[in-house]
Amino acid sequence: MSWNIKQTDKLTFDIRGNYNKNDDMWVLLTSDHHWDNPKCDRKLLKRHLDEAKDIGAAIIFNGDTFCAMGGKGDPRRSNDAIRQEHWGDDYLNRLIDTASEWYAPYADNIALIGMGNHEESILKNYGMNLVDELCNNLGAEKGDYEGFVRFKRDAKGLPLWMYFNHGFGGGGATKGISAFQKVILKNPADIYWMGHIHEQYAGNEMVRQISERGKISLKKQSYVRTSTYKQNDPYLIRKAGSGIRPLGSYWLKISSDKSVGNGVKYIMQETDL
C-alpha cells in the first residue's frame, strides 16, 4: 500500500501517497452500499472492492453503508428487507459483527467511512453509531456526514482538495444537480462528491482564479454523484415511475503533470458492471 491517511481537523483528512514519478494514485469513491439489505448486489460490490485491493487503491465510503431499517419500532421495517442472519433481539450488533467480517479483507484499503442518513437515523433513535463501530473493527478513519479530503501523491506535490457530503434532497428531473450548486458556493474544493439519491454521473466546470499578482487563469472543478449497490424494487419503479437506478461507484485517478498549475491532473471513471 502506497498511501496513508491522517485526520487534520474535525472534518478534514489527508491522504498522502508515496508514488514513483509515473505511478498513478487510485481512489475508489463509493456510497450507498445498503450492504445488509437482501437486494444489495454483493457480488458486484465485492468485485469492485477486489479491484481496488488489487491495485492498492484507497477506498472511501460516503454514507449509507448500512440500510439498517429492521430495528424494533422502525416504521420502515419490512421482513423482506432483513437478511436471515440479522434476525434477533441483538439486530444492530449482528449488523456490526457480520459487516466487520465481510469487509475485513479490504481493511487495509478502506481509508475513510462517512455517515449517511440511514446511519444518522440509527444514532438518533437507538443511540448507536454504526460507522464508529465498523471503523473501530476495520481500523478505518471515522468520517461525518460531510468533510474534506486532501490528496497528495507525494510530499512535494501540491494538494488536490475534495469536498464530500452524503447528500440531501431528492433527484427528480434534474437528478440532484442543484444540490451541487449549493455546496460549491460554500465549500472551496477541486472535486465535489455526493451520493444519497442513487443516481450516477460526473462532470466538469471551468472557473476563473486570480493569483496574488492579479493574473487570471482557468481551473477545473469537478462534481461526481455515486449511485448504489441496492437493486431497484420493480413494484416501486412502476408505482413511482422513477426509473431504474444504476449500480456502481467511481474511480478517481490522480497523476503527476507539471503542465498544470498544481502539478497534478485527475479523471473520473465509472466502475464497470
Verbal overview:
With 273 residues, this protein is α/β, with parallel strands linked by helices. The strands form 2 sheets. The protein has a 7-stranded mixed beta sheet, covered by helices on one side. A 6-stranded mixed beta sheet has the order 6-5-4-3-12-13, with helices on one face. α2 runs parallel beside α4.
Descriptors:
single chain; 273 residues; alpha/beta; 7-stranded mixed beta sheet; 6-stranded mixed beta sheet; 6 helices; 13 strands; globular
Topology as H/E string? EEEHEHEHHEEEHEEEHEE
Number of separate helices: 6
Mean pLDDT: 90
Share in helix: 10-25%
What low-confidence regions span 5 or more consecutive residues with pLDDT below 50?
A: none
How would the global form be characterised?
Answer: globular
Give the distance, in angstroms, between the N- and C-terminal Cα atoms: 26 Å
Q: State the total count of DSSP E strands.
A: 13
Question: Which helices and strands appear, and what pairs or packs with what?
Answer:
Layout: E1 3-9, E2 12-17, E3 25-30, H1 42-54, E4 58-62, H2 91-103, E5 110-114, H3 117-126, H4 130-138, E6 141-142, E7 146-152, E8 160-165, H5 177-186, E9 191-194, E10 201-210, E11 216-225, H6 234-240, E12 250-256, E13 264-270
Parallel strand pairs: 2-7, 3-4, 4-5, 5-6, 8-9, 9-11
Antiparallel strand pairs: 1-2, 3-12, 7-8, 10-11, 12-13
Helix pairs in contact: 2-4
